[in-house]
Amino acid sequence: MIYLDSTESDHRIAKAVGGQGVLENGLLVHPICNRMKSDLSLEEIRADLFGELLY
User: Fold this and answer.
1) Among 4, 11, 38, 42, which residue's CB has the most CB atoms within a 10 Å radius?
2) Where does the record place the HNH domain (predicted)?
């Protein structure tokens, strides 16, 4: 789960597409509005999602 600061607009986008909203910096996973903050950095999350560490 990727945690990013979101706005009400992000939340509406996320709900409209079944729990996921595409943001400029990645994917906001917003299943029930109860998001957990990840201990990983955004780079580590992207590496986990895409299989490589991008710098």
Assistant:
1) 4
2) 5-39
